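>> received
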Amino acid sequence: MAQKEHQSTSFSYVEVTEQKRLNEAREKQIPWKKWGPYLSERQWGTVREDYSQDGNAWEYFSHDQARSRAYRWGEDGLAGYSDDKQLLCLCIALWNGKDPILKERMFGLTNNESNHGEDVKEYYFYVDSTPTHSYMKYLYKYPQGEYPYRDLVETNKRRSREELEYKLLDTGIFDEDRYFDVFVEYAKGDPEDTLVRISVHNRGPEDAQIHVLPTLWFRNDWTWEQDSPKPMIRQLDGNKIHASHHSLGEYILQCEGATELLFTENESNNEKLWGHANVSPYVKDAFHRYVISGETGAVNPAKKGTKAAAHYVLRVPAGGSEVVRLRLSAKAAPNAFIDFDKTFETRVADANEFYDRITPANLSEDERRVHRQALAGMLWSKQYYYFDLDRWLTEHNAHPMTGGGLGTSRNSDWFHMLNSDIISMPDKWEYPWYAAWDLAFHTIALSLVDFDFAKDQLLLMLRNLYAHPNGQIPAYEWNFGDVNPPVHAWATLFLYRIETELGRSDLRFLERSFQGLMLNFNWWVNRKDPEGRNVFAGGFLGLDNIGVFDRSAPLPTGGHLDQADGTAWMAFYCICMLEIALILTKYDEIYEEIAFRFLEHFVWITYAMDRIGAGHNSMWNERDGFFYDLLHLPNGEAIPLKIRSMVGLLPMCAANVFEAGTAAAHPRMFEMIKLFIKRHPEVAEKVATAEDREAGGFMGRRLAAVCNKEKLLRILGYMLDENEFFSPFGIRSLSKYHLEHPFVFFLQGQEYKVQYIPAESDTGMFGGNSNWRGPIWMPVNALIIRGLLQMYPFYGPDFKVECPTGSGKYMTLFDVAKEIGRRNASIFLRDADGKRPVYGGTKKFQDDPHWKDYILFYEYFHGDNGAGLGASHQTGWTGLVARELDLFARLTPEALMKSAAGVMAEITRKQVAGR
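>> returned
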């Protein structure tokens, strides 16, 4: 493994092989990332594929249709692999001899079929990946008995929202271990040479047969694009498949020992679907019909088409395994499999070397396992996302500028959009589309392995072909105009500071981001605070059902809602933009006045949260010591909605510390601050105490925070109470107090209620597939940790709070943050009994040696026992656990106390020293 010495302004380290590939991709444009796991787990049931009149995407294009119907905008498949424009795709298909259909993609229930919203009903794991995808490993658990499609649909439909979901394990299909573990591994010989190893293990008590069909095909663009030449896949001599594409070029797939090669077209079976004549006798579902129904005429005897598969029939002994080997390359190697196993050994060693270097040495074996699989999940969750809204709206006859206004469709005011990039997805089955605020959290974890990709993801959302001309960042494809919390500025600042400590300060990235964020900030000010009161709405803001009403819909009471979280998000936005502007001031003095403008915004927002209007209605409730949403009725009355939820904790996250020398470094800005205090003394008094204004904090630092010391102590009293927010596994989204004391609002004889529900939602609000009324969510826990670490250098080591509340034990803010991180991580780690809380009472996952060390990173977690809930592969923001493990393994309170920016400096210094 080649290594070289790398020098930066601060550090020196040996460059490992995988890091060299990353550097070559960035500095020399060597396309190490051209090929990767860029297929979706589900393309059917998406908005992109929806051409219905009523916008019911789930029903318009179903799982049952997917094997016969060509996709318009993307592809899916098991262990999918493709180029970065998803032109040529590779995956596996399986048949156990009993299933009614060929297993080509993951099966799951739609939102209408399941008692808790859409849900994948398969077991698969993203086991490993390097950031350039030079090595990847995927595991799919395939039952040997007939897959219980009907049972899953019918049983889940019968169950109410108060009952548990009916899972695949509940059907008994894995009893007696009658299943195959199908491992799919990829290893790159070079950027245009990929080796594929499929290992099939029979975990059952008897020999069993399985059909394995590695499948190569072209995404169908020729049907819709008039000027797109149709590509060709054909058989070469022996077991070779030749693929030719006018823009991608020529590729050869060599299939060792294949019994036969099958060919067809990636085109819809019109006759089956709609009763229309087929364009070609050879259509998308040909392999299903050939293998399962024995229709020999379904495949093309001329051995050509746009879709091909190598057909292997394996007899796998009980407890044994069989291996299939393939090689996809731009140039056919004459002896493709001579060096095959050696190349795999080398790439596995490269991956181990890379993770050994980036993982803190003081993590335990189990912590290292969680850390690595979390990052593997992040890397496997990349997907090519293609959506041309101009074309899509025209095809719907709903383009507002050119369509004549005859049709209606969602996202009609986003016709400027053209998305055609590799994007980090929340979950490639449940959420196979990007979500703006999820993506910002993704980058925090991704930056542990690939800074360039993380930065590109943040910049992507600010580009002209994504962000709306008015400055709004797109939310998600179901409604690009919905509003997500503005966390991009924080993520941008986080990445910039860490990379600066690595010795390559990317000022261009920071400034490019800042310009786009300025447009977005102005959109927030103009659209979400139309009355200019520095009080912000925004709808559900990512917290789905957290409120007593649907906050994205007109209120049943009339009037409007002052949102404590929306206003806190904007305060947070302000201080992040302030800090970015101060950094840019070092290079251009014009940013100093811009920095003051953000500080002024922050001050007014902070003031507004504590005193609003002539009636002195306030989101801060002095009696309770908590922030609440404020409901304004049409008659002028204002009612605090006294729900102790994450809404009231988020204001604590809006905090930033400035070193004692900041004033001297920015004299113009501080002159403006003095003038502001002179003109508005009552505002200054609310925002900071006289003691803080005169003396500052520890070591003379200054604090910009929504919560002063008194508010902070009162909020922490609730947050750290184990009978309220403080679960054994982190911070709950709703206080457990509301289990016995639900919040109830009566309106015109109807009851609206919020009660603590630690598991899945019992309402259909926002589809019912997520719940913010009790469970633990990793992203907001991470922001709370960030807020505490920011305030620690200001308040110092002598400032302590009771943790847990009522315990008599006192901790610094640093130790509180570390304790939250420890509880978050414990969700995935084995406890004293060897059990992982994430798997609850599922014995198979807790005890079976072939299951218990494969980790699933769920969307959210049970508020009392830590069991995983919601989307099972939302490594996206749940992958933050890798960053938390990394952070507290490297960071010490002493290092953080040296400098308010010490959190970045210290963790980076130790990370680089490890490398």
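>> DSSP finds 29 helices and 36 strands in the chain.
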